[in-house]
Amino acid sequence: MVFGRIRTGFGMARRSGRVLRDYPKLLVFPVIGGVSGIAFLATLFGGLFVAGSIFEEGGAALYGALFTAYLVETFVASFFSAALVSETREVLNGGEPSVRRGARTAWSHKLPLLAWSVIAAVIGVVIQLIESQDNTVARLLASVFAVAWGVMTYFVVPVIVFRDPSVRGMFEESARTFKNTWGESVGAMGAINIVTFVLALAGVAVAGGVFFLIPTAGGARLVLTVLIGGSAVVFGVLVGKTLTGVAKTALYIYATENEPPDYFEDMGFAEMGGDGKTARDAGVLGGRV
């Protein structure tokens, strides 16, 4: 069972890679989102570093800054994730991706995305508060809660984009979708994380090659190593994020429409050991690589 889920996860990752290969424009959304998020965090914590006292005093001011960081980061990431999943669906339906249309679609769901971001920011601060306690049990509980929260909200963005639900509904449907696709979701997450790690590792290898092979001496070689190797690592992470968005969209489409989308039609989602049950009947999805 475990190895079957892993194999299916790599199957999802490989087919998601084919989608990205055919439509590299999808990579634009994680790139813009990543740059925007980094720029915001650099501005926020750069200002706080200059102020200095907030880190020394801690307390409400520090957690207020953390809430702001979580809120904006979650909204930015969710916004461009919404654009990605909407355009991924367009691709899986046989269309062409459009950055402008994806951004318009995400903007049309700005209020539920903001509501989700506020709740996620509150939960993030609560988890941080628990983890800051000098208590092993509290930290363990925080870790368990963080995992459960991640599972329950795994499909929140697709739910918001494709269903436009109430605040309560977005969590209920996300949790229900994950329950119905838990095997493939976990497998896909694991496989894509491995792919991301391998790509990042390749970036480190490139950095090492640059450092030892380029004859330039002194600081110039170090700068080239950081720029080239760092760019390779960032590229690997961005590819991983894009693959995650594609796989998540494909799983959500099947879970809600009971029909495999293009690029994933040979996954055999509904095959449950030859018993003929569907994902909704069985509560999980089968699949072949």
Automatic annotation (TrEMBL):
InterPro entries: DUF6159. Keywords: Membrane, Transmembrane, Transmembrane helix. Pfam families: DUF6159. It comes from the Archaea. The keyword Nucleotidyltransferase does not apply. The chain crosses the membrane at residues 26-55, 61-85, 111-130, 136-162, 186-214, 220-239. The keyword Transmembrane helix applies. This is DUF6159 family protein. It comes from Halorutilus salinus.
